[in-house]
């Protein structure tokens, strides 16, 4: 197997925002909010463009496996970008720290519905359960686990074990795959059977064709069709990591978040250190909302962001007009009120600087529609 000095790669490559995104954190709150909403519109426009639509249709015809990804809310983990996969192919589940429990009723229902829909169409499901870390500096790891990579990885294995209990331990219909994401290089790290690992950084400068042989050795129990459809992600990731090798990229290790998102439908938000995203999955939403408010308050206190305000964005996706949209509106309004109440109780002074925005997302087009806002 090829040998690569990972520390050398990490010293020259790191995942971060652009200089324009860096300046965004320093602008007045109304300008930051306008820029974020403009980003959501640009995302929807691109998603609905003829080129993007055709790319999705062609990709799904060639690679029909349903791709579900459990991941942290960290904006550096942008898998469509890092794997060069068309937007809309990967279905993300995002939460603070990538912390999930498949016993949570709503989360379990969403996952089961996705798996059943794929099975009824004759498609298998690949469930990528991710954790992230920095090879160059521990402090750039996952804040949700106190930058403890071992703990984050152990949690991912725990979710994989739950998936086996839920969907079958032979993994022939649903294959749970523990997958690391090294944020300095944007490299995927596949964890297979008996401790076997496929680290994309090992393949920089090597032929992509050899990945298929290595993947089969690392995950010998993976069904052939699922392995076939995972391979393009790995090949895309190899091309992405190779393109970044030797490129100077500034490091972003400091919290500068100024948005608290609660709900779902935040696919457009992949700016590092910008938003804290809380999925509506667990039985206790108050604790992660309070933790997010603690982070925003500390960011203001230490001058990492201006103290003129922060954005609270509640969002719920819907598929159809009528009852489906009406239910999404009620859910977003509830989430917004609930989050505002928690923040008001925990940080009364911070609550006075809150700019709440309530929205729904038309999922087929990824269009975000604001229901109300206070600027």
UniProtKB/TrEMBL annotation:
Single annotated GO MF: carbonate dehydratase activity
InterPro entries, alphabetized: Carbonic_anhydrase_sf, CsoSCA_cat
Record domain Carboxysome Shell Carbonic Anhydrase catalytic: where: 69-192
Protein name: Carboxysome Shell Carbonic Anhydrase catalytic domain-containing protein
């Amino acid at each position: 197997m090829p040998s690569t000095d990972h520390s050398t790669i990490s010293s020259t490559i790191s995942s971060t925002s652009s200089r324009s995104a860096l300046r965004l954190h320093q602008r007045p709150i109304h300008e930051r909010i306008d820029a974020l909403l403009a980003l959501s519109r640009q995302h929807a426009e691109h998603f609905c463009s003829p080129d993007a639509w055709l790319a999705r249709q062609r990709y799904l015809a060639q690679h029909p496996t349903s791709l579900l990804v459990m991941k942290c809310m960290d904006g550096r983990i942008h898998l469509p970008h890092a794997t060069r996969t068309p937007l809309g192919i990967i279905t993300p589940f995002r939460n603070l720290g990538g912390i999930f429990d498949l016993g949570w009723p709503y989360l379990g229902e969403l996952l089961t519905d996705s798996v059943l829909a794929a099975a009824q169409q004759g498609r298998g499901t690949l469930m990528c359960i991710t954790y992230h870390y920095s090879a160059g500096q521990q402090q750039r790891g996952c804040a949700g686990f106190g930058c403890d990579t071992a703990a984050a990885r152990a949690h991912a294995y725990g979710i994989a074990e739950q998936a086996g209990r839920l969907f079958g331990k032979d993994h022939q219909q649903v294959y749970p795959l523990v997958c690391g994401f090294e944020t300095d290089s944007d490299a995927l790290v596949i964890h297979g059977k008996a401790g076997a690992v496929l680290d994309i950084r090992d393949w920089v400068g090597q032929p992509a064709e050899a990945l298929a042989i290595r993947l089969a050795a690392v995950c010998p129990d993976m069904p052939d069709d699922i392995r076939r459809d995972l391979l393009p992600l790995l090949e895309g990731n190899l091309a992405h990591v190779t393109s970044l090798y030797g490129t100077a990229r500034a490091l972003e290790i400091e919290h500068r978040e100024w948005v608290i998102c609660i709900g779902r439908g935040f696919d457009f938000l992949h700016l590092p250190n910008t938003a804290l995203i809380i999925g509506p999955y667990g039985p206790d939403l108050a604790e992660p909302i309070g933790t997010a408010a603690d982070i925003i308050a500390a960011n203001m206190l230490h001058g990492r962001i201006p103290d003129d305000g922060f954005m609270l964005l509640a969002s719920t996706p819907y598929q159809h007009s009528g009852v489906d949209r009406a239910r999404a509106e009620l859910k977003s309004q509830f989430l917004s009120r609930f989050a505002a109440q928690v923040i008001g109780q925990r940080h009364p002074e911070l609550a006075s600087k809150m700019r709440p925005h309530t929205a729904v997302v038309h999922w087929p087009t990824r269009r975000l529609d604001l229901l109300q806002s206070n600027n």
